[in-house]
Amino acid sequence: MFLSYTAAALPLLSLLANAQQPPSNRSTASLTEVLSQHANLSSFQSLLETQFPAILKALDTFDATSDPITILAPNNDAFDSLVNSPLLSGPFANNDTAYISKVIAYHSIMGEWTSNTLNTSFQWLPTMTSGTNFSLVEGGQRVGGVLQPGDKNSSFYEWEIVWVSGESTRSVVTVQDVPFKGGFIQVLNNFLIPPDNFVPTAETYNLANYDYAITAFLGAVYSLANTTSLAKYINETQGITMFIPANVAFAAVSGTLQHYLETPEPDLVSILSYHVLSGTSGPLYSSDFANATSLSTLANTSLSMRFYPNSYFINQARIVAQDVLIYNGVFHVIDGVLSPDDAAVLPNPTSATAAPVLPTNKDVLAVNGSEAPFTTFMPNFVPTDLPDVSTTGAYSYASQSTYGAEATSSKKSEARGVLLRGRGDEGGLWFVLGWVGLGLGSAVVFFGAL
Question: Taking the model in full, what pTM does it have?
Fold first, then answer.
């Protein structure tokens, strides 16, 4: 389920005045011992012990004092709810060990992240998904952690810990700050969702967020006669960041954009590329936003980020939804189409919607998202990464997706693995648990000294 996060979503609250008590004293108990003490984690414990003993062993090598780890452990209710998850039900039903190991890695975070170290602003933390084809984000795919005021009617805690993952899935910690010798366990009410590729994520986002749907931008990318360069860059570049105009923003300037499509393409390519950051510095999450910042774009020109009361702006456009995670980065939704020729236009913080900088002959207030251009060019996405229910009720699960104006392919490698850094008697070791080719039931564990 997608949620929108804006700078105004949570007030800046004083943790000094309202802080929860620090986590309890360190524990010398192993991960297995602590899991066995919590009946609501029996499914998670069974999964690790019976199918992933090497991962369990690696997780148990961390030291809370010198090398802590935080494990986000789904409770039994989360396991029972897997059947309702379009992305996770198939892999778990088919015992797709390669994908499940990815899910476990995505629930493991280096460092100590507790009610005492998180705060009321989102922190986007790298998970242990740095193995081959588990993430195109340097250092591992991110998950967002934040403290939010607890619900007095349903929460035992003054401050709830909330984690946000792919598809803006919200997971609430039901039991906080459970210590074990390697760090802390946070017990989740549902699974985190590993971020998917841009096209399926965008299409799911459109269904959940009609007001901020982005089908126009997606269609515009694939409307170009030669979609290979821009689409390939968006789909395959590591650590990408995009500021994507909502459909209503495209609709307001549809005449100009349609004209660009009918004329030589450089104008449209320039407009679209201006919404994509260049460079290899990694994704720009909301926790990295800063006032008076210049951002280099794929169009070889710069964007200006500014902060006015309660909102960040990119050039003249307000950021209306933040931190939608994708396999190779992140995108944010804005309420105006940007133009490199109008980079000096300042935002109007008092206006509910950004005024268009491109020519328009429409009454902006009368525009709605259904008028968005380019939606007929939506890529032909075949969601073979999602579970399918056959006529017999059995699930099928594949490892590839194809999408494009003409079925542009995005092939995932058949080699998958999860990288877990452990410690041994002889010093640090890398435990690499992986499978070569999906469908192999046995794991291969490689060890190597640091």
Answer: 0.78
